[in-house]
């Protein structure tokens, strides 16, 4: 089939009607039920394949019974009775007959880009009886957690609706837009306009409850009966915050307007009357044909029609879209590329899905000259990308402006909330209760006082009906009666005591978190020189959560390992071949010497660390015949052809000393999104099978010096359901083969068995796979089969329907793949090494010592996972392994109960109901490995039976037992799908109160990262999707040790103390006012000036809190890293808990009493005025709270001294300024007080007596009941003294 023609142009017309009741071609009859969906008749045998079972860890496989999809076993295909009926089966048409409402029921757990079908769709597998029993067991588990269902529904929202496809007329924007309301290409990212800025900004700001609280207080103070403070002064805090925020928002929005204006006025070349003319971006419409030159940005989402490359390839940089720095390849269809290169006008129709946010999927088809062919994600380039290494590219606009995927994804990820902040709200509620009680006491006291003095009210100040001024009758005083005066007293008390609710605490916490993030980003110990990446704080809300992590969920590949794949071993036709690694350098010439040189017509120079195995090279290049030679040939041909890797060929530079004149050397590099594929293609090239060309219709392979041009008839890409990839190739001799590679569990079930030469190869290869896995190598199985003309015709017809469908395309493609992916001939297996990152074993060991439970979630085999677990110190070799292979939950539970009895491991109810987590099960542990999709390898708490030592339990079952899993320190989950990772994290979050952290490096880890309390992304080889979805990002896994044990500990200790101190600081001030009001007839008058009350939290005491919250360190980083168990202080909530809150409140009560009564008793016999007393209380409370803070500071630096003592000096300075203003009632008070020794003595007594109980308590507690932190701090101090004074 020529690549220049439509691949499926000779198939039957799409509009041809098809029968509705059809029999399956390889198995028992399949009928259409009343709903029009596939049904299994009584004569059929269904099986649930191994790869489909990956998705049922939490028993989420149940969908409506009407949507159960049939999987056909291989055994029945061998029945000749059904073989001739192959042509009659059209699965795609059967799916088209399903009602849309019922088809949506198929959407469940799975990959976002794969429509999430999590049960096998016509999966071909062996062992139907066992699989059938598994299916029955799985269908019995019909209960899902409500949270999982919500997650599924939320994720399902991203599935595009193809019921109403968008029609794009190529090069006819007018016709495209005349009957459709398509968006123009003008974008707007700004929030405001000149007219709506003020009202809209105020509306947004007052969504914050704190601002509403401020507004309510200011409004109450404007009422004459409630004017406790000056009306202007009461508005100052609110106006200040609103103005600052408005200026900031206005500046940011002005920058957005400027950016939008520059973006919309850029120009692009648009086709008009067969010529390209410049046109502003904002004028571009859907249907326009655009030409993009090299290094230019893409103005909208456009389907490629042609490029400067004859093969239709374009290279794009997607960094602005997904953060990935590696170039991506996109293709123009060969049908349109030839027309573009030939200068012909293109007119056709593109039918595509409605705009959606999924940047990794695009479903469409194109009609051109009466032919229809599919379009996918590889045919579209998105707005925000750049064209690279391609002279020009031409495309038709399908999405413009706000409908582009980049703009649809511009919404920010919902922010997470700190656990400590949640606890803080609980204490804030208690403070609200205290505030209410105090206000009620004042109001009740006021009512009683008025009732008692009711006859005297006419003669009492402020209650006389008439004021007398200079002997004359003045204005009348409004007296509202006892009930209303009592109510007004209650409201006035709220105004006076308003700072009891620490609104300023939220602002202080944000500033402190910002400062903490600055120092975390600047930590040189968390800088990765290999990737030139610094630590990133992408979320400022949850710094303190890093100090309370109990569970760490980690991906393996790229997170624990380097994700730099190296081809190590291969098993070909039952024989093992080992490949030595190069130790001399990255560049290696693959040249065959001597008489074998005749097989090479061209030499390829590539970057490789592989020395070809001499024995295998001899097999490939000698004149040998037989099945082994054919299998080896097909093996490497499959590695070179079955992939999506793009070869980049360049001439050998003349400056290269290895090149000689006339040398035919060419340099070739491979670029792909999967490091595994790149490693396999490189290995194939090292053995002489070099992929040197790829287009949308064919590939070029240099096989042993012979250049082959192979037509690609179709490609079934790897997906999480099938776990394999296949490509249908037509060879120059017109033979057609399907080449397949995939996971062993996926391939082995669809191999052709019963053949005398094939069965021994399968057995031997399986043993090789086990050996490779035991060494920690990643394995893939390679297989192939020939296709007859009849099989090819049927597959082509169904493939055309599936690949051009706009509805359930991925499901139909999986069904189509099942038609050819069976009865495969096993060729061999590959083993790739992915080395551990530096420092991973040490980091995991430290995390375990810190009391953190490490769970590794991987899709690898059990043996591979165990080997990696041993090498990174998750598992140890001295463990007693308990092997449990259960096919059902009941069987698994029974085997677990037997093991518990044997090894004396206690559990609440091992077979009936799930017990609660045991907090203390951390001393010893039990190892539990597993090889199942949903079961795990666990290192669990072992309370009894120490004579057996550590235990290892291997589980093969379909459910993860929560009671056992939560007893574990380390869990290794094998064969888990991406969404199952999120499900495991959600299980722990939902059933425990522990903090969870998820760390990963790839797009398959995004759901897990977003589900965890703290998400960490690794800047690795798999792009930056994980980084973009994370809260924190780093270059290496080993940095997690420092992030948690050092910065996590510091942040938690600082924020915990900050919250308690703010509660204390505000409460002591309010209680002082409360005692004063009780002594002034409950009148809510204040001895403090209005400005002193306002500036107390804003200026007088705020700066020391912020500085200490950013810079204070209870222990050095060396001590925290040396003794990881100190991290457990966060688990015990030593820095912030309910007990500390109540102790702080009791201490606050004492200090407020001392603060109020010492000056009262000191000046009892004096004639001091009330404003002088208020001035004394103001400076005394500031000194008291700052000395209180100084008692708790662990690390004194210059800026800490300046902030702590400087705030006292600033307070004196402000009081001097305020007391120098003649119009204020406190004019001159500070000058008179400063001359009196009694004034200074009162301040000294307040400070000493107020803090004495706290000092005594701290001394006794540290001497008799020291914490681990205090002991470690004393040890630090002793070491410093020893170094200072010498030995």
From TrEMBL:
Binding site for ATP: 555-557, 677, 718, 741, 778, 858-860, 975, 981, 1004-1005
Reactions mediated catalytically: ATP + H2O + phospholipidSide 1 = ADP + phosphate + phospholipidSide 2
Family annotation (Pfam families): Cation_ATPase, PhoLip_ATPase_C, PhoLip_ATPase_N
Enzyme class, UniProt record, top EC level: translocase
SUPFAM superfamilies membership: Calcium ATPase, transduction domain A, Calcium ATPase, transmembrane domain M, HAD-like, Metal cation-transporting ATPase, ATP-binding domain N
InterPro entries recorded: ATPase_P-typ_cyto_dom_N, ATPase_P-typ_P_site, ATPase_P-typ_TM_dom_sf, ATPase_P-typ_transduc_dom_A_sf, HAD-like_sf, HAD_sf, P-type_ATPase_IV, P-type_ATPase_N
Chain residue ranges for the region called Disordered: 1-22
Topology term for the membrane: Multi-pass membrane protein
GO cellular component entries: plasma membrane
EC number: 7.6.2.1
Membrane-spanning ranges: 226-247, 429-450, 487-507, 1067-1088, 1094-1111, 1140-1158, 1170-1189, 1196-1218, 1238-1257
Active site per UniProt: 555
Domain P-type ATPase N-terminal positions: 168-233
Organism superkingdom: Eukaryota
Compartments, record wording: Membrane
GO biological process: phospholipid translocation
Xref: NCBIfam families: ATPase-Plipid, ATPase_P-type
Name of the protein in its database record: Phospholipid-transporting ATPase
Organism: Dorcoceras hygrometricum
């Amino acid at each position: 089939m020529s690549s220049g023609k439509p691949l499926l142009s000779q198939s039957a017309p799409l509009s041809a009607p098809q029968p509705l009741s059809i029999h399956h071609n390889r198995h028992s009859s399949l009928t259409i039920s009343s709903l029009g969906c596939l049904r299994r008749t009584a004569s059929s045998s269904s099986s649930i394949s191994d790869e489909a079972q990956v998705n049922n860890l939490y028993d989420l496989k149940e969908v409506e019974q009407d949507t159960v999809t049939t999987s056909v076993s291989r055994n029945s295909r061998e029945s000749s009775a059904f073989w001739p009926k192959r042509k009659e089966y059209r699965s795609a048409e059967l799916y088209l007959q399903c009602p849309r409402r019922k088809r949506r029921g198929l959407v469940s757990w799975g990959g976002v880009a794969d429509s999430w079908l999590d049960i096998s769709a016509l999966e071909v597998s062996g062992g139907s009886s066992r699989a059938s029993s598994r299916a029955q067991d799985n269908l019995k588990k019909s209960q899902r957690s409500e949270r999982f269902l919500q997650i599924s529904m939320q994720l399902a929202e991203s599935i595009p609706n193809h019921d109403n496809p968008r029609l794009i007329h190529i090069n006819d924007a007018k016709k495209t837009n005349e009957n459709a309301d398509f968006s123009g290409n003008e974008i707007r990212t700004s929030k405001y306009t000149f007219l709506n800025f003020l009202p809209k900004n105020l509306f947004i700001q007052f969504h914050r409850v704190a601002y509403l609280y401020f507004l309510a207080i200011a409004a109450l103070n404007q009422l004459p009966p409630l004017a406790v403070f000056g009306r202007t002064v009461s508005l100052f805090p609110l106006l200040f915050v609103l103005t600052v925020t408005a200026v900031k928002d206005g500046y940011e929005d002005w920058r957005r307007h400027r950016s939008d204006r520059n973006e919309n006025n850029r120009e692009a070349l648009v086709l008009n009357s067969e010529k390209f003319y410049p046109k502003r971006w904002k004028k571009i419409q859907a249907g326009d044909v655009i030409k993009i030159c090299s290094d230019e940005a893409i103005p909208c989402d456009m389907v490629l029609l042609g490029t400067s490359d004859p093969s239709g390839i374009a290279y794009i940089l997607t960094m602005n879209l997904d953060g990935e720095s590696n170039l991506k390849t996109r293709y123009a269809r060969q049908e349109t590329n030839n027309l573009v290169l030939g200068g012909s006008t293109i007119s056709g129709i593109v039918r595509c899905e409605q705009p959606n946010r999924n940047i990794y999927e695009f479903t469409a088809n194109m009609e051109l000259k009466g032919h229809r062919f599919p379009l996918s994600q590889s045919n579209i380039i998105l707005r925000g990308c750049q064209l690279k290494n391609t002279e020009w590219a031409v495309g038709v606009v399908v999405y413009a402006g706000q409908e582009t995927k980049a703009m649809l994804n511009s919404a920010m990820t919902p922010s997470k909330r700190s656990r400590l902040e949640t606890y803080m709200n609980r204490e804030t509620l208690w403070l609200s209760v205290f505030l209410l009680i105090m206000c009620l006491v004042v109001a009740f006291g006021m009512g009683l006082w008025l009732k008692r003095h009711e006859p005297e009210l006419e003669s009492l100040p402020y209650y006389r009906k008439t004021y007398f001024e200079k002997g004359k009758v003045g204005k009348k005083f409004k007296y509202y009666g006892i009930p209303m005066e009592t109510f007004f007293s209650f409201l006035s008390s709220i105004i006076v005591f308003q700072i009891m609710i620490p609104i300023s605490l939220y602002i202080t916490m944000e500033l402190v978190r910002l400062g903490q993030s600055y120092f975390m980003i600047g930590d040189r110990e968390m800088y990765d020189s290999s990737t030139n990446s610094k630590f990133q704080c992408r979320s400022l809300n949850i710094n303190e959560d890093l100090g309370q992590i109990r569970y760490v969920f980690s991906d393996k590949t790229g997170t624990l390992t380097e994700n730099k794949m190296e081809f190590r071993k291969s098993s070909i036709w039952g024989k093992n071949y080992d490949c030595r690694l190069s130790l001399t350098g990255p560049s290696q010439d693959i040249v065959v010497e001597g008489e074998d040189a005749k097989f090479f017509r061209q030499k390829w120079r590539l970057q490789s660390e592989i020395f070809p195995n001499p024995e295998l090279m001899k097999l490939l290049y000698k004149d040998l015949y037989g099945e082994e030679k054919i299998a080896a040939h097909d093996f490497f041909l499959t590695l070179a052809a079955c992939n999506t890797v793009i070869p980049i060929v360049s001439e050998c530079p003349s400056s290269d000393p290895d090149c000689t004149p006339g040398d035919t050397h060419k340099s070739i590099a491979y670029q792909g999104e999967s490091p595994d594929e790149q490693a396999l293609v490189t290995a194939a090239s090292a053995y002489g099978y070099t992929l040197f060309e790829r287009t949308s219709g064919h590939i070029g392979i240099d096989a042993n010096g012979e250049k082959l041009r192979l037509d690609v008839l179709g490609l079934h890409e790897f997906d999480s359901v099938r776990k394999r990839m296949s490509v249908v190739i037509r060879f120059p001799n017109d033979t057609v083969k399907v080449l397949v590679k995939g996971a062993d569990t996926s391939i082995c079930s669809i191999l052709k068995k019963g053949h005398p030469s094939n069965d021994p190869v399968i057995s031997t290869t399986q043993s090789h796979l086990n050996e490779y896995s035991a060494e920690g190598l990643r394995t893939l199985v390679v297989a192939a089969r020939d296709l007859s003309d009849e099989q090819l015709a049927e597959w082509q017809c169904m493939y055309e329907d599936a690949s051009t469908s706009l509805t359930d395309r991925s499901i139909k493609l999986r069904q189509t793949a099942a038609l050819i992916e069976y009865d495969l001939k096993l060729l061999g297996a590959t083993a790739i090494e992915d080395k551990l990152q530096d420092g991973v074993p040490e980091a995991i060991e430290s995390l375990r010592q810190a009391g953190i439970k490490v769970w590794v979630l991987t899709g690898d085999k059990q043996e591979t996972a165990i080997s990696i677990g041993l090498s990174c110190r998750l598992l140890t070799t001295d463990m007693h392994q308990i092997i449990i292979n259960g096919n059902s939950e009941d069987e698994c539970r029974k085997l677990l109960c037997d093991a518990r009895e044997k090894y004396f491991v206690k559990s609440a109810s091992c077979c009936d109901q799930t017990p609660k987590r045991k907090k203390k099960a951390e001393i010893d542990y039990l190892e539990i490995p597993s090889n199942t999709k949903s079961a795990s390898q666990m290192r669990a708490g072992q309370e009894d039976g120490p004579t057996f030592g550590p235990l290892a339990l291997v589980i093969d079952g379909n459910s993860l037992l929560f009671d056992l899993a939560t007893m574990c320190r380390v869990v290794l989950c094998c064969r888990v799908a991406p969404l199952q990772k999120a499900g495991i994290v959600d299980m722990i979050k939902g059933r425990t109160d522990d903090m969870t952290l998820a760390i990963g490096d790839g797009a398959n880890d995004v759901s897990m990262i977003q589900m965890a309390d703290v998400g960490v992304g690794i800047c690795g080889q798999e792009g930056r999707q994980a980084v973009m979805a994370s809260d924190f990002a780093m270059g290496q896994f080993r940095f997690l040790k420092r992030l948690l044990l050092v910065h996590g500990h510091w942040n938690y200790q600082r924020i915990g103390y900050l919250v308690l101190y703010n509660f204390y600081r505000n409460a002591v001030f309010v209680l002082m006012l409360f005692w004063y009001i009780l002594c002034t007839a409950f009148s809510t008058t204040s001895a403090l000036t209005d400005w002193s009350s306002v500036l107390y939290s804003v200026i007088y005491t705020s700066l020391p809190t912020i500085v200490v919250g950013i810079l204070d360190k209870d222990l050095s980083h060396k001590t925290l890293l040396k003794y990881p168990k100190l991290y457990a202080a966060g688990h015990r909530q030593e820095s912030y808990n309910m007990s500390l809150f109540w102790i702080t409140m009791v201490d606050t009560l004492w200090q407020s009493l001392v603060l109020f009564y010492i000056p009262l008793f000191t000046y009892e016999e004096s004639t001091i005025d009330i404003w002088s007393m208020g001035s004394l209380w103001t400076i005394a409370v500031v000194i008291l709270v700052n000395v209180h803070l100084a008692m708790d500071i662990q690390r004194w630096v210059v800026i800490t001294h300046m902030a702590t003592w400087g705030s006292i000096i600033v307070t004196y300075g402000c009081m001097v300024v305020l007391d120098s203003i003649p119009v204020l009632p406190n004019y001159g008070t500070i000058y008179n007080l400063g001359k009196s020794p009694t004034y200074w003595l009162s301040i000294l007594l307040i400070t000493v007596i107020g803090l004495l109980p706290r000092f005594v308590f701290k001394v006794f507690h540290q001497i008799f009941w020291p914490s681990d932190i205090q002991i470690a701090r004393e040890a630090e101090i002793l070491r410093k003294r020893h170094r200072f004074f010498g030995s």
